[in-house]
């Protein structure tokens, strides 16, 4: 009997960051369509949390926390390469090695990798793909941001490892130009995989069990999605991100606008802030002088439920990258407070890049100014989103065709 196709995925998750969940679930949906019956293994940073949320019968969750990945899995993969007689034993003793050995491709779904200013993540960026390279499993880097490569360490490491990937899907014009400037030729211009995420029609009923949807009945709701990553950047430069967001919400309240405060990255049962914006949102909510007209989503929802919920907003303010992706996917005009080129290059695909600005520009006055202008030009911006969305979704789904070609050999 011919073995079923097998794909291993790293860099995404079902729990915590719902952008990572959206990428993973987009892959599950599109691979099912393009490849058919396929077994998928997720090398997971949070195996227990991911397993608890896994509803896919063909998805296996295998532990791969950073230390385990960097030391154990990489070492075993190197042994697999160097000592062929040990391969049967290594496959029996390590689920990660067994998965990579039987997989036709490793999908790296890291959202931003090999970029200047994030050198502390370079070890993880390399460790994520090195076992597959050791075992000669093709590496397919799903649409993501890479570069710039002006920093010496990042440039050297990138020139060593990025050419060894089978395919790198660039997530926008700026990333593509950075990658071409490094001399890479294994590039395909694409769009974030999360644009391929489809809802199944159950989202409204599921959200209604935990959220009072009458809040949205008469429209006029502004959605706000803060980010602890942005908070760290703003606060490190002497600002107070939570205070700025709270002041902005109060300015909307004073004008009679309703606000939905929506964390897009939530880890249930912990106050740790890595991949968890819920503690930040609680702080912002607590700072409000009045909570009238404010709906605080104080729990973890699925990526599809969050996308549906964001789609109920009239306007949106995002700091989380994939909250922005969901608002664009639902054609909701959005102001974006970003910290790298990855935001702007996606907005460029919709011809709305003017609505992004950096953390260095964030003040209460400037945020209010940009939002007021978005209000005034809402119809113009929405028309651009509606016009460009089909093309962006098609570019995103193209990745599944490329992956299917590798799987079929």
Distance between the termini: 18 Å
The structural class is alpha/beta
Strand content: 15-25%
Please state the overall shape, judged from the principal axes of the Cα atoms.
Answer: globular
Radius of gyration: 21 Å
User: What is the share of helical residues?
Assistant: 40-55%
The count of helical stretches stands at 17
Largest sheet: 8 strands, parallel
Q: Kindly state the number of beta strands.
A: 16
Determine the mean pLDDT.
96
- The stretches of 5 or more residues where confidence is low (pLDDT under 50) are none
Tell me what you see in this structure:
- This protein has 409 residues and is α/β, with parallel strands linked by helices.
- Helices cover 47% and strands 16% of the residues.
- It is built from 17 helices and 16 strands.
- Strands 1, 3, 4, 5, 6, 7, 8 and 9 form an eight-stranded parallel β-sheet that branches. A six-stranded parallel β-sheet has the order 13-11-10-14-15-16, sandwiched between helices. It has a two-stranded antiparallel ribbon with strand order 2-12.
- Helix 6 links the parallel strand 6 and strand 7 (139-146).
- Helix 14 (321-329) runs parallel beside helix 15.
- It is globular.
- 48% of the residues are buried.
- The mean pLDDT is 96.
């Amino acid at each position: 009997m011919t073995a079923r196709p097998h794909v291993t995925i790293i860099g995404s998750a079902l729990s915590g960051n719902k952008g990572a969940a959206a990428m993973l679930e987009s892959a599950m949906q599109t691979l099912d369509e393009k490849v058919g019956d396929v077994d998928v293994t997720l090398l997971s940073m949070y195996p227990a949390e991911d397993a608890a949320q896994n509803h896919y019968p063909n998805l296996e969750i295998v532990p791969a926390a950073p230390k385990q990945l960097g030391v154990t899995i990489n070492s075993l993969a190197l042994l697999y390469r160097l000592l062929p007689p040990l391969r049967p034993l290594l496959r029996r003793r390590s689920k990660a090695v067994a998965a990579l050995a039987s997989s036709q491709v490793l999908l790296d779904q890291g959202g931003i990798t090999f970029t200047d200013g994030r050198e502390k993540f370079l070890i993880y960026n390399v460790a994520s793909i090195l076992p597959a390279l050791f075992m000669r499993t093709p590496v397919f880097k799903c649409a993501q941001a890479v570069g710039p490569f002006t920093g010496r360490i990042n440039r050297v490491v990138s020139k060593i490892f990025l050419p060894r990937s089978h395919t790198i899907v660039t997530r926008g014009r700026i990333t593509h130009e950075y990658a071409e400037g490094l001399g890479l030729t294994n590039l395909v211009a694409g769009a974030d995989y999360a644009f391929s995420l489809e809802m199944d029609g159950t989202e409204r009923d599921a959200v209604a069990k935990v959220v009072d949807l009458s809040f949205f009945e008469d429209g006029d709701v502004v959605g706000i999605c803060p980010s602890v990553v942005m908070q760290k950047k703003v606060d490190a430069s002497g600002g107070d991100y939570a205070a700025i967001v709270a002041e902005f919400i109060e300015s909307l309240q004073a004008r009679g606008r309703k606000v939905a405060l929506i964390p897009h990255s939530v880890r249930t049962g912990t106050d740790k802030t890595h991949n968890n914006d819920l503690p930040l949102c609680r702080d912002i909510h607590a700072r409000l002088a009045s909570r009238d007209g404010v709906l605080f989503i104080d729990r973890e929802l699925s990526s599809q439920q969050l996308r549906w919920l964001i789609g109920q907003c009239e306007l949106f303010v995002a700091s989380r990258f994939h909250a922005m992706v969901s608002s664009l996917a639902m054609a909701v005009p959005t102001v974006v407070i970003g910290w790298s080129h990855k935001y702007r290059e996606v907005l460029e695909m919709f011809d709305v890049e003017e609505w992004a600005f950096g953390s260095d520009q964030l003040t209460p006055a400037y945020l209010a100014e940009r939002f007021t202008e978005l209000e005034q030009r809402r119809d113009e911006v929405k028309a651009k989103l509606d016009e460009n969305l089909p093309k962006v979704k098609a570019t995103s789904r193209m990745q599944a065709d490329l992956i299917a070609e590798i799987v079929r050999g």
